[in-house]
Design brief:
Family: Belongs to the fatty acid desaturase type 1 family.
Strand content: 5-15%
Number of strands: 9
Number of domains: 1
Keywords: Membrane, Oxidoreductase, Transmembrane, Transmembrane helix
Distance between the termini: 59 Å
Largest sheet: 3 strands, antiparallel
Structural class: mainly alpha
GO biological process, one term: lipid metabolic process
Radius of gyration: 27 Å
GO molecular function: oxidoreductase activity
Organism: Nicotiana tabacum
Shape: globular
Length: 441
C-alpha cells in the first residue's frame, strides 16, 4: 500500500489488495472543475508500518482539471483551414475506431484484384520504351538540355521500380516464379536488391506509421537527436534540404546487411545481392568502356539520382504530413493508418504514366494485391464509399515545403516539432528552405 498527500490536504490511497470502492467523478459546468466523491472507504489493514492518515469529514476531493481540446481534425472548418495551410486538396475526417480493414476491403469491386497479363505486359513496354528514349535523349542532347533528359530517364527508370514493386506484392502475374524473375531484372538498373527490399517493404505495409516498426520514413527521436550533438547538423540536412535523396541512405543501410534479416530470408537475400553485384561488376565496366567515366555519370548515375528523387519524395508524400500521426503499437489502428494515414497525390500526367500510377496510393495500402493498373478504379470506389476520410492533394510547392520544414522531431501531442523550434541556433538549413522555397499551392 502506498500513500500520498495532495495539495488540498486530502489523502489518495492505492492498494494492490483491495481497490477503493464507490468513487464517482462529477463536474461543475460553470467552472470546468472536477470533483472526486468518495462514497465509502474500505477498512485497510496491513502488517507493514502504517502511514499517518488524516481525513476530514467532507467526502469531496478537489482536483485540478486539465481540459482536453478537441482535435482540429474533428471540425470541417478546421480541416479546410489545415488543408490550405499544408497544401492539401482535402484532409479527411478521423476514421471511427470500429471500422476495420475488412470493412473497407469488402467495399472494393472484385475486378480491381484481377491480374491481367496483357496490362502487365503493357506496363513493361511503357517502361522499356520510355527508358530507351531517355538514353537516346541523353546521347543526343546538348549539355544545356541534359537536365531535361535526365529528368525523363530518371522518371522512366522509376517505372521499372514500380513493376518490381508489383512483382514483390504478387500482383503482377499469375506465374509467381515469373514475378520473381521480372522483379529481380526490373530492379537491376537501380542496383536495388529485390528480395531484401521485398522483405522490408512487407513490414512497411504491415506496420504503416507505427513507431519503431515502420521501415519507411520515421520521425526523428528527440532523445537520439539530443544524444548525438555531432550528428545534429547531418540529421537536419537529411530531413531538410537533402531529404529528396535520403532514400539513398535507406537503400544502403537497410538492404545490404545480412544481420537485418531473419534466418529464413537469408538465402533469398544472398541471391538478390549476388545479382546486384554481378550487374555492377559487368554493367558498369561495359558502360565505362564504351562511354568513359563521364558516360557512366551521364547514362547511369544521373538517372539513378533522378530515380531516388522520386523514391524519396513519393514515399514521404504518401505518409508524412503534420496531421498524420505515428503511433505506438498499443495505440495503432490498421484501418486508420492505411486509409487515414496514406495520402493520394496527383502528379503531372506524364509522371503518372511513366510511374504506373504509384501515387494513387491509398488503395495500394488497403490491399497491396491490387495491381498498379487497377489502382485508379479502386480509388474511385474508395472515394464513393469512404471519400470523407481520404487525404488528397495535387503536387504543389506548399505541400513539399510543409514536409521539409515542419515534419521533423516526433511529438506525441503535436505529431511533429520542426528543427527550428527544437534547436533554433542550429537550424539554418530549415530557415533557409522557409525563405527560398515557393509557397504556391
Amino acid at each position: 500500500m502506498a500513500c500520498s498527500v495532495a495539495d488540498s490536504g486530502f489523502l489518495f490511497l492505492a492498494s494492490k489488495k483491495r481497490p477503493i470502492h464507490s468513487t464517482r467523478i462529477t463536474q461543475v459546468a460553470s467552472s470546468g472543475t472536477y470533483f472526486l466523491k468518495w462514497e465509502s472507504l474500505p477498512q485497510i489493514r496491513s502488517k507493514q508500518k502504517s502511514c499517518l492518515i488524516s481525513l476530514r469529514k467532507t467526502n469531496v476531493v478537489r482536483a485540478v482539471a486539465v481540459p482536453i481540446a478537441p482535435s482540429p481534425l474533428d471540425s470541417a472548418e478546421d480541416r479546410k483551414q489545415l488543408s490550405e495551410m499544408y497544401g492539401f486538396r482535402q484532409i479527411g475526417e478521423p476514421l471511427p475506431h470500429k471500422v476495420t480493414m475488412k470493412d473497407i476491403t469488402e467495399t472494393l469491386p472484385k475486378k480491381v484484384f484481377e491480374i491481367d497479363n496483357g496490362k502487365a505486359l503493357k506496363s513493361v513496354l511503357i517502361s522499356v520504351t520510355s527508358y530507351t528514349l531517355g538514353l537516346f535523349m541523353i546521347a543526343k542532347a546538348p549539355w544545356c538540355l541534359l537536365p531535361l533528359a535526365w529528368a525523363w530517364t530518371g522518371t522512366a527508370v522509376t517505372g521499372f521500380f514500380v513493376i518490381g514493386h508489383d512483382c514483390a506484392h504478387k500482383s503482377f502475374s499469375k506465374n509467381k516464379l515469373l514475378e520473381d524473375i521480372i522483379g529481380t531484372l526490373a530492379f537491376l538498373p537501380l542496383i536495388y536488391p529485390y528480395e531484401p527490399w521485398r522483405f522490408k517493404h512487407d513490414r512497411h505495409h504491415a506496420k504503416t506509421n507505427m513507431l519503431h516498426e515502420d521501415t519507411a520514413w520515421q520521425p526523428v527521436w528527440k532523445e537520439e537527436f539530443d544524444s548525438f550533438p555531432a550528428l545534429r547538423k547531418a540529421i537536419i540536412f537529411g530531413y531538410g534540404p537533402f531529404r529528396p535523396w535520403m532514400s539513398i541512405a535507406h537503400w544502403w543501410l537497410c538492404h545490404f546487411n545480412l544481420k537485418k534479416f531473419r534466418p529464413n530470408e537469408i538465402n533469398r537475400v544472398k541471391i538478390s545481392l549476388g545479382c546486384v553485384f554481378a550487374f555492377m561488376a559487368i554493367g558498369w565496366p561495359l558502360i565505362i568502356w564504351k562511354t568513359g567515366i563521364i558516360g557512366w555519370i551521364k547514362f547511369w548515375l544521373m538517372p539513378w539520382l533522378g530515380y531516388h528523387f522520386w523514391m524519396s519524395t513519393f514515399t514521404m508524400v504518401h505518409h508524412t504530413a503534420p496531421h498524420i500521426p505515428f503511433k505506438n503499437s498499443d495505440e495503432w489502428n490498421a484501418a486508420q493508418a492505411q486509409l487515414n494515414g496514406t495520402v493520394h497525390c496527383d502528379y503531372p500526367s506524364w509522371i503518372e504514366v511513366l510511374c504506373h500510377d504509384i501515387n494513387v496510393h491509398i488503395p495500394h495500402h488497403i490491399s497491396p494485391r491490387i495491381p498498379s493498373y487497377n489502382l485508379r478504379a479502386a480509388h474511385q470506389s474508395l472515394q464513393q464509399n469512404w471519400g470523407k476520410y481520404l487525404n488528397e492533394a495535387s503536387w504543389n510547392w506548399r505541400l513539399m515545403k510543409t514536409i521539409l520544414t515542419i515534419c521533423h522531431v516526433y511529438d506525441k501531442e503535436q505529431n511533429y516539432v520542426p528543427f527550428d523550434e527544437v534547436v533554433p541556433e542550429e537550424a539554418q538549413p530549415i530557415t533557409f528552405l522557409k525563405k527560398v522555397m515557393p509557397d504556391y499551392a
